[in-house]
Each structure stands twice: as C-alpha cells, then as structure tokens.
Amino acid sequence: MQHMRLKQLRLWCLLPLFILTLMLTACGQHVGEKDVMQTERETNEITWGVKGDMRLFGLTDIETGEIRGFEVDIAKAVSKEIFGKNVKVNFVPVNSNTRLPLLKNGNVDALIATMSITADRKKEIDFSDVYFNAGQAIMVKKGSKIKSVKDLTSGTKVIGIQGSNSVLNIKKYAPKSEVLQLSDAAQAFAALKSGQGDAMTTDNGILYGLTSDDPSYHVVGGSFTTEPYGIGVNKGQKKFLTAINKALKKIEKNGEYQKLVDKWFSQISGFDGSVVK
Amino acid sequence: MISILVGHWSELIEGMKYTIASSLLALVGSLILGVIFAMFVISPNKSLNVIGKIYVEIFRNIPLLVIAMFFYIVMPRIFPGLDGFKAGTIGLTIYTSAFIAETVRAGIESVPVGQMEAARSNGMAYLQAMRYIVLPQAIKIVVPSLGNQFVNLVKNSSVLAFLAGFDLMYQGNLIASTTFKTTDTYLAVGLLYLVMTMPLSYFMRYLEKRWSKTPTV
Amino acid sequence: MSMIEFHDVNKYYGKFKALKNINLTIERGEVVTIIGPSGSGKSTLLRTINGLELISSGQLLVDNHDLADPKTDMNRIRKNVGMVFQHFNLYANKTILQNITLGPEKVLKMSHVKAAEDAERLLSLVGLLDQAQKLPSMLSGGQKQRIAIARALAMHPKAILFDEPTSALDPEVIGDVLEVMKKVADQGMTMIVVTHEMGFAKEVGNRLVFMADGEIREDSNDPRAFFEAPKDPRAQEFLGKIIHVD
User: Fold this and answer.
1) CATH architecture designation of domain B2-212
2) Which residues of chain C have pLDDT under 70?
3) Number of domain units in chain A
4) Chain B closest-CA separation from residue C221 CA (Å)
5) What gap in Å lies between CA C168 and CA C175, rounded to an integer?
6) Is the keyword RNA-binding assigned to this protein (chain B) (predicted)?
7) Do A140 and A129 fall within a single domain?
C-alpha cells in the first residue's frame, strides 16, 4: 500500500517535468523552412521581429500600440524594396531571449532587433550585411571629467548590466575601475543618475536611446569594441538574404538610409557618425 | 556544484561576508527599530501612536525590493555615498522592523496589564516599567516568531544582489552568467545560505528553551 | 497636613458615573477599610489615589500634591504610595528577591547591596526568607501576596493601598496575609484597604467607609459600632447578606 502510494507520488512529480520537456522540444522545431520569398509574394505580407522596448531602435508607443524606431523604418524600407510598395509589413516585439526561437519557429520572417553578428549566432542563423556599427561605449553626465574609457581609473565606478558581455569587456578596457552590475539598462541608468557610479557602459545603441530620454547625459569617447548589428534570417533562405543585402545597398545609395539616420539620431548629442555606414 | 564551490570559493566567501555583515546590521537595527515602533503603536500618546501605525502599515505592505530601490536610487540625491550595500541594508532593516514591530506589539499586549500597573505603582516611570518588566516578558513570548523573522531577514538580504551590493546572491548571479552553469551555481548558493540560516534557527530555538527556564533577560 | 484629601471628586466612564461627589480626608497613620457591594466604586476610588485612574472633576490631594495638576510628578506620588493588588501582579520575569529590590534600585537609586539587605529584612517580616531565589510562579497565592506587601514596603512609602488583597486567596491562607497586614498597621503605616474581610475591618481598621453606587454612604471612626448598628439602609442590607460577622 505504502509502496503504491509512493510510486503514484513519483509519477505525479514527474508530470510537470514531462510537460516542460514537451514544451521545450516544441520550441526547438524548425518550422520556418519554406522559401520566404515565395510565400511572401503569395500573401503579400512580411513579418519582422523587432525590439519593442528600445528607444530609437524599436519602441512601442503606449497610446497607439505601434512600434516605432530606426530598425522599424529600415525594415519597412527593405520590405518595400523587395516586395514593392503595397506589401503589408507586420512587426512582432521580441527580446534577447525570444528572438531566436521566434525566428526558427517561423513566427517572424526576419529579425532586426539590435542583434550583433557573432560567430556563435552565425551557427544558428544567417546575417545580412551590417546596418548599424554597434559597439560598446560609455556614457557620463555632461561635464564629467571622464572623456573616454581610459579615464576610468582606480577610484572610479562603472555601472554595467548583469551577465552581459559588456561587463566582461569593461574589465579588460578599464581594469582598475570598480564594476557595479545591475539587472537591466533602466536600473543601471537610474543608478547612474543617483550617483552610484561615474559612468555606465553597454552597447552604444542603448546608450543613445537613454541620452535621448535625458540629454544631461552623453556618450563619450566613441565605441571601443565592434559588435555590428545585422538582419537575421533562417538558414536556407539564401534568396531572401541576397534580396535583403541588395535592398540595403539600394537605400544606402539613394539616400534613404541617411534620411532615416538623420531622423532618429541627428538630435542625439555625442552621436558618433562612424556607427552608421 | 562542487566545481563551482571549489572554483569560485573566494567570490562566494566574499559574498557571504557581505551577506553576514548586512544581516547582522539589519538584525540589530530592525530589533531596535521594531521595539521602538511597537512601543509607538501601543503608546497612549496619540501622535506617537499614529506615527507608529503609519510606519508599520507602509513598510509592511511594500515589497522589500521597492523599499531598497528607493534607498538606492532616490535617497543618494539627499545623502550621497549611499551605495548598494548601505541602501540595501537600510531597506532590509526598515522592512524587517515593521514586521518585528507587529510581533513585539502582540507580545507586549499579551503581557497582563497588571504587570505594568504593578511596576507603575512601584514608582517606575512608563519607560522603566517597559524596559524592566513588560518588554523582557514580551520578547520572551515572541522569541519563536522573532526567530522566523531573523531567518527571513538573512534570506531577504539577497535583495542586495539587485543593488550591486556584493552579497552572496550577487556573486552567484555573476558566476552563473559567466560560467553558464546556472543550476550548479544556484545550488551552491542555496547551500551556503543554508549554512548561514540553520545555525541561526538552532540558536533561536536554544534561546527559546533557555529563556523558558530562567527569570531574567 | 492630611495624607489624602478628596474634595467633590467625580469620575465618569462615558455616561456612567463611577464616583459621585466624593469627600474624604485620610490622616497619616489611619487604617481605613472600604467596604461595599461590588460595583460600588471602591476599587475605582482606591486606584484614583495613585493615578491608575484619573478623576473627571473635583480635587484630589495626595501628600499635598494636586493630582489634577499637570505639573504633578505622578512617579513621585507613586513612589510614596504603594499598592497591593488582588491578583498580586508580581513581576513574572524576576525572582522574589528582585521583585522587592527592583523598585528601590531603579527608582530610589539605592545600591544593590543595601536594597538586598532591606529585602531580606522584609522577607523575614513576611516569613518567606527561604523563597528569595524562586520565581513568582513557584509560590502559592498566599505567599505571593505576602511578597507583594514586602515589595510595597521596600519603597518606604507614606501610605499603602490594598485592592481586595485576600479575594483571590484560598480561605486557609487568608489568615497569613491578614497577619502581615496587621503587622504593617501596627508599625503606624497609613493604609487604605478595599476588602470583604469584615473581621479585619473590625479588628485592625480604625476607620470604616461604606460605599454604594459610587457614593460614600457611611464614614465611621468606630468600625465596631458600624457593624453593630449601621445607619444607612444600603449598609444594613449589605451587612444582612453577610452570613457571619465575627
């Protein structure tokens, strides 16, 4: 009797684990293997994964629910170049954890979501040419004595985002500075504002977004690493990728790219022109 | 898990030092504040009474993280130098003190009124009567629930991790995010919390037993 | 200079009148017993004398201090006026010795040695010297009450209030407590005793106050005469209900 009950108990304990496993395997399945170029032509619709919480790049307007930003505009321009003016362009908000599964499952056709081109990611997906020369930078309050990462000497404190590569990088570039790690960019910026640190470090794109929110802070010294952003598509979508690269070149040539850069970044103090192509 | 414990021993020990320091400071601080505000709450003085009740209700009903964040993000504008460790410890102290105040208040109210009347009739001032007669009995009554509060306090000190307070949880987060051995890291961190809280639990139980046999506190 | 003076004192609890127009003057060295049916205001009257209850109107002078005056230091009054409770109220967290020495040490700032010497003398007086190191919870009711009297005496008060000191005791130990109270009376202590012990009122008391409905109905300097022929009808009724008066 006792034995039976124990056995039953064990089975019940295993149930949630079983469900979890099922869910995880489901996530791993590759659904997006159809040729995007063909299906989009048929439906005249394309879906992009973009950031929904990132100022300047992709930020959801709370009132309209519309996502707006530099990446959103690039995506629209690229879509129109490939599929014509009347294509319906959809946007799905993604974050760093969800973007790869969403692409692989076919929920989105392409990702333009502040994603750096890295060797690890290249194993999973394909990347377009660079559309934004992102890199790590530091941001300080205007008037600060710190002008570049070299000024982060001993006695200074630099705020980073917990678990990010940028924290490991800053330990290399400013080994004497004390690193304080906070859980996300918003908290890190709040900590910087309340004087918990002398500078904040992360991707320059994120920092520009923050300075657009509070212009009493600016990015200084340019970026000291190179982590360029590219558009991500599923492997096996060679035609689609080629079309994207062609479109990127086209909008660069016809001046539309520069117009979008100006639209989003011209007001940003400390904006470094070298980050765009 | 062993490899995490061995490979990151110095960071983990460093984290434990901060956790223990923060917990000890908050333990003493919250006990003092808790007793003071418990006395405010039962005070016959109307304004002290109101202050005490507001304090307890506010800090008991706001998440610890919010209180700690307030001291980390907002207060440094008035008091510069309030870093993650200090802000977290202050937040922890205040948050815990609200619960201790409630516990101690209940303890004081469970001491028969006659004890206070006898002490006052004996010529003692209100505070003397509290100090020598009522509080010692009240604290003795609430030792078991104080023990729970203290164990919770040690665990809650992990709020420092959100404020870059260098505690055990913070170090754990960093180790997990650099090694990607998330499960092992948090198992190791959990074990080290256990190493800190278990002796505390046993100590409080020991006090409970001892005090039930002895007259004075 | 009288020890305690009530002048037209009233005490209300909301609309309920607990004390009505009390006029009473107690001289030093008097042993006053207050009797009356329950709810007559005896205990309330007693508790106003050391400020455990505040009066609503009138004037109450204790040792020449006006209790209604905010400048009056109640702690000083209480230092000079001891109290013994129905339920003893010994300090549960202190030993018998500490129960007696705490007041002198903390209030009178007496040295520990002196306070302990005093306490031992008092413990012999009440016949409980061998219990000094015990906790109150280990003593019987009668013993506790004798300790409570010793605790009051240790402050060298000018008067002691007794609030039904034998009501919570088993009949066989009441005698021990009354005996101690008689010793205290014999030393010339001013005592105000709310009691149901008619024997004590008659034998030891040199003044008797009968209360009913918050009023003083009879105030007699000859307790024996009162018990033989009470004048007030309520007192007659009250005494009639008491089965045996010795």
Assistant:
1) Orthogonal Bundle (1.10)
2) 243-246
3) 2
4) 28
5) 13
6) no
7) no
